[in-house]
Each structure stands twice: as structure tokens, then as C-alpha cells.
TrEMBL record:
The keyword Transmembrane helix applies. Keywords: Acyltransferase, Lipid biosynthesis, Lipid metabolism, Membrane, Transferase, Transmembrane, Transmembrane helix. PANTHER family: 1-ACYL-SN-GLYCEROL-3-PHOSPHATE ACYLTRANSFERASE (PTHR10434), 1-ACYL-SN-GLYCEROL-3-PHOSPHATE ACYLTRANSFERASE-RELATED (PTHR10434:SF64). It comes from the Bacteria. Residues 65-177 form the Phospholipid/glycerol acyltransferase domain. The chain crosses the membrane at residues 6-27. The keyword Lipid biosynthesis applies. GO terms for molecular function: acyltransferase activity. Pathway: Lipid metabolism. This is 1-acyl-sn-glycerol-3-phosphate acyltransferase.
Amino acid sequence: MIVWHFFRVFIHLMAGLLTCAVVFPFVHDDRRDYLVRRWSVKLLAICTVDVAFKDKSEGAVNASAMIVSNHISWLDIFVINTLHPCHFVAKSDIRNWPLLGWLCEKAGTIFLVRGRQRDVRRIYEGLVHQIQAGKRIAFFPEGTTTSQGNVLSFHANLFEAAIEAHVPVQPFVVRYLDAQGQFHSAADFIGDMTFAESMRIILLAPRMTAELVRLPTIPTDGAHRRDVARLARAAVMRELGVTEA
């Protein structure tokens, strides 16, 4: 059974690669977003992950808002893409993943080399231009994944792009639940775990629900990036019921 599931994932990845190479160069952004959303929905279905969306944004959704979220798993990207196909900022390690890394790049993922200040500056400037051009940008300000029930400090650097582009920040919360509504441990992608190991655990595990919660936007006019990062983290922690240690 696990071999069959891996085969289905492989075929779906190949279909995604073909779409990126042959279709994406010739379609407009709306069609591209539709294809990304549909592909993400199907990938999660193959992985027996259901998505439940909750809206706590308390107002109209700003299409230009920069999306930020807590970070549990590589699944997070595709969970968010089922609602809002985005250009994600992700750590450069993902680019080296077989098939999926290339696919993420062709889907518009922006790769960041950790510890290189010049790289952060280059990407930050690019993000401002992309936001101003109408692209939807998302990133995980913790900088890495963490186990469910924990929220690491939010790095503030990339929040500056939202401030300079004059758009609000839109926090999201993602959590993975089992049939009893408890955190589903199979979703955790931490430590030295490889993508293949994580995929195997997910495919062997009981069905899970990815709960995606959209929180109220945080205005950035006249704000400092550290304050925006602090407010975003506090909103995520409140939704998760997490308190400072």
C-alpha cells in the first residue's frame, strides 16, 4: 500500500513538473493560480490530508497583504495554496529536494540562504517590487519548522518589505489535527528528518485535518518591522493557545 501511495505522489509531482514547464509560460496569472490551487488540493488528498478553513479576519480580505504563518511542515505551503496561491519565501535547502524543489522554484518560490545578510537584502528588495506588481507573497517568519504547540521567535527582517510596499500583514495559523481534535504528530517535520521520511510517516498515518485560520490583518503604516513581527507572533500564539515559556 505504501508503495502505491508513493507512486501516486510521484506521478502527481511529474504532472506538476510538466505543467510548470509546458503550461505556466503561456497562461495568465489567474489561470496559473487556479492550477496551483488545484494541484495543491490533489497533493493533500493523496496524502490523506483534509483542509478546514476558518476566517477570523474580521473584515474584507486585502489581496495585496503579505501572508505570514507559523511553520510545522512542508505541507504548510500547499495548505495555504489551497486558499491563496502565493509566492513563498523558503530556505534554500528546499531547492535541493528531488523533484519538489524544482517544482517549488517553477511555482514562484523565492529561496533564501540563511545567515547571508546580503541575500536577505536582495530578496527583501525583490519582494517589495513583487508586492507592488500585485503578487501575493508569503513567508514563515520563524525561519524553520517546529513541533506543534510551539512558536519560535519571528524574524523581523522581511516584514520591512510589507512596510515599504504599504501593505498590511495577514497572519495565518496552521495546525494538523487527528480525529479527536488533538495535534497530529505525523505532521511534524523537525530535526534531521528528510522529506522522504516525512512523506512516509504521513502516508502511513491515520487521516489528518489541516486547519487553516485567517486572522485579522496588521496595519504597517508608520510601523517598525520589529513591532509588526511581535504583533503577528502574538496573534498566532493566541490562536494556538501558546504562552511564553
